[in-house]
Amino acid sequence: IFSALRPQQPDALLALIAMHRADQRGEKIDVGVGVYRDRSGLTPVMRAVKMAETRLVAQQSSKSYLGSDGDIRFTQLLGELIFSAQSVDDDRRFGLQTPGGTGALRVGAALLTRAMPDARVWVSQPTWPNHAPIFAEAGMATLTHPYFDAKTGGIAFDLMLTALDEARAGDVVLLHGCCHNPTGTQFSVEQWQALAALCSLRGLIPFIDLAYHGLGDDLAPDGAGARMMMEAVPAALLAYSCDKNFALYRDRVGALFVQAPSAPLAEMARANTLALARSLWSMPPDHGAAVVRMILDDPALRKDWRSELERMRTRLNRMRTALAAAHPLLAPIARQRGLFSRLPIDPQTVEALRDHHGIYMPADGRINVAGLNDANIGRFIEGLLPHLEE
Ligand code: LMR
Fold first, then answer.
1. What is the 3-state secondary structure (H, E, C) of 334-367?
2. Catalytic: which of 122, 128, 192, 305?
3. Average per-residue pLDDT in the chain?
4. ipTM, two decimals
5. What separation in Å is there between the alpha carbon of 182 and the centre of ligand 1?
6. Aminotransferase class I/classII large domain location, by residue (predicted)?
7. What is the pTM of this model?
8. Which CATH architecture has domain 53-297?
9. Assigned fold of 12-45+305-387
10. The pLDDT value given to residue 88
């Protein structure tokens, strides 16, 4: 047993956490893994989360099972946050709680392969390194389309559309809802419209990954593309993560929303998704979803969460402006959104920055802007500038 297994590379992003932790230098800078950090470099529990947790501990009278769809009120409130109260009631749509956005992607991928065994998924080049493995484990082949225009720091949209000309009816197109990981780019309203038209015309299934809702421009604009897409096409999926916008990372809180062409097909898809969830994790962990439900259900907690989220967003965008002003090649960073941007540097430079300056980022030059603050951004720029070519 096990002799047929092949060695596995440790996940590069998770390995960075360990490397940074082991570095004894006091002046090190972590712009690696995607967690929000405040101006003192910490990833605190949000105020509204702490308050809801205190109430939850005091009020919870049972930890008995809820079922494979998890906390139903959580999913409903989250659906209203993304879409609208009316569209959540649409009987062609359903949602279920999942262990993080990864769980939502995984069970969604399993549903798609069960429904369409020959379907393939198109992902942007580059994308979050875990996307292809998630779909591969569910048995779906991955194809890539061009996406990032390193020259402009924007989206190579025409090249993307040209590549998608090769897509077959029933193929899945994975789209980042906002704050693209790793480039920080986002589709414009017109680009979302063009993608929606393409998916409708060609029978492609959009699968939207919304993992940074509220960390780009605000909740409404960050969800606008997803909303528009779901309204324009007959069938679509959306994976939602509460990791970043509720700072609940290790509690694994997410949801999958599915839209089918008709109510009976939605019911069929729902039954199949619940059966798949049952075999994958049986039931999702409750704590974090209960906390999000309590926050969204309580006007005062909800207001406080939104204001803390706004502060996080403002801080990110302030760091973006400062970085963009340091060099013309960094200028696109001011237009990009969310935690990430990709620097125009090669893997050797990434290594040199780590060795000589204690600056930690993955080999592709992705930086987590939240790792920067007023105390370290000067040092970061000083280390980086000699490596930028005009
Ligand atoms: C990241 O991209 O750094 C985050 O989404 C964390 C992860 O799980 O990879």
1. HCCCCCEEECCCCHHHHHHHHHHHCEECCCCCEE
2. 128
3. 96
4. 0.92
5. 9
6. 27-383
7. 0.96
8. 3-Layer(aba) Sandwich (3.40)
9. Aspartate Aminotransferase, domain 1 (3.90.1150)
10. 65
